[in-house]
Amino acid sequence: MTLPKVLTIAGSDSGGGAGIQADLKTFQELDTYGLSVITAITAQNTVGVQAVHPVSLNGLNDQLESVFTDIKVDAVKTGMLVSADYIQSISTYIRDYNVNKLVIDPVLGSTSGSELTKNEAIDELKNSLWPLATVVTPNLIEAARMLGWASINTVSEMEKAVYQLHEWGAKSILLKGGHLPGGESVDLLYDGHTLTHFPMKRIDQPHTHGTGCTLASAIAAGLAKGNSIHDAVSMAKDFVTCAIREGFSIGEGSGPLNHSAYRHRQ
Ligand SMILES: Nc1ncnc2c1ncn2[C@@H]1O[C@H](COP(=O)(O)OP(=O)(O)O)[C@@H](O)[C@H]1O
Ligand SMILES: Cc1ncc(COP(=O)(O)O)c(N)n1
């Protein structure tokens, strides 16, 4: 039996809700085979990020070399990328091994405010990795920071942002509206031709830790299975919506999603 193979290049979350742990759970639930290259170890729980310990650049390169020299991956998802030299190295492997399904979740910080990718790394991300992407999935805070805007608060500002972000060379941009004020969380997908709105009534749920990681991983799994970008995003939205609806209260703060909810949906 063979399964589509999906690689996540991201940080570890000791709390199990975001990063590598969310990614591997998502791959498994979507009947794909998950591989992982770890960029950093975070000491993290539902309350926040207590410490970040990047793996060494050699450690990162050794993992990339082991995976790419042996296994032909069908899709790659990236999350926390630490710094510019890590991004350079990852871009080289993505290019050299002709990865043509790449989902970039441009994680800059945690929802609780800790820096996970250095601000100075944004230029490297824009210049070397972004143009290789099938889709980049910023949230409103990341999009505003990368564009140098104060904030993005409305759907019409989101539309302006998604067009500008598309000019940096990715095939498509999915601008996520989870942080949009109001009762709806709208995501916008722009592929250079068509702008698609994915509206969703906001679920009143404090346990949303790892939503961005989970969405991007579900998209990567969908692409690895041969779906179009539009169908992969549509399935991933259903996956994350089910998972948010049944999020867990397991600590004092914002708990993780229930990654099994999609498989068991009615
Ligand atoms: N409370 C919510 N109800 C419904 N969908 C949500 C909610 N919060 C986030 N989402 C969805 O989860 C995904 C992740 O979005 P977002 O929270 O903006 O990203 P991030 O986790 O990177 O901050 C998006 O598809 C968004 O629309
Ligand atoms: C290792 C790691 N990667 C990514 C996130 C972002 O996840 P979120 O935006 O849901 O807090 C995180 N908190 N930790």
Strand and helix map with partners:
Layout: E1 5-13, H1 19-29, E2 33-44, E3 49-54, H2 57-70, E4 75-78, H3 84-96, E5 102-104, H4 122-129, E6 135-136, H5 140-147, H6 155-166, E7 172-175, E8 187-190, E9 195-198, H7 211-224, H8 229-245
Parallel strand pairs: 1-2, 1-4, 4-5, 5-6, 6-7
Antiparallel strand pairs: 2-3, 7-8, 8-9
Bound molecules: adenosine-5'-diphosphate and (4-amino-2-methylpyrimidin-5-yl)methyl dihydrogen phosphate.
Descriptors:
266 residues, UDP-N-acetylmuramoyl-L-alanine:D-glutamate ligase, EC 2.7.1.49, binds (4-amino-2-methylpyrimidin-5-yl)methyl dihydrogen phosphate, binds adenosine-5'-diphosphate, transferase, 8 helices, single chain, alpha/beta, EC 2.7.4.7, globular, 9 strands
Classify the secondary structure makeup into a structural class: alpha/beta
The profile of the biggest β sheet is: 9 strands, mixed
Low-confidence stretches: none
> Radius of gyration in whole Å, from Cα?
17 Å
Strand order of the largest sheet: 3-2-1-4-5-6-7-8-9
Q: What is the CATH class designation of the domain at 5-135 and 206-245?
A: Alpha Beta
**What is the level-2 CATH architecture name of the domain at 5-135 and 206-245?**
3-Layer(aba) Sandwich
The distinct bound ligands, ions and cofactors come out as:
adenosine-5'-diphosphate, (4-amino-2-methylpyrimidin-5-yl)methyl dihydrogen phosphate
Taking the alpha carbons of the first and last residues, their distance comes to: 28 Å
**How do the SSEs run, as a string of H and E?**
EHEEHEHEHEHHEEEHH
What is the CATH topology of the domain at 5-135 and 206-245?
A: UDP-N-acetylmuramoyl-L-alanine:D-glutamate ligase
Outline: globular
> Overall mean pLDDT score?
96
Report the sheet-strand fraction: 15-25%
Counting DSSP H or I runs of 4 or more residues, the number of helices is 8
CATH evolutionary superfamily of the domain at 5-135 and 206-245: Ribokinase
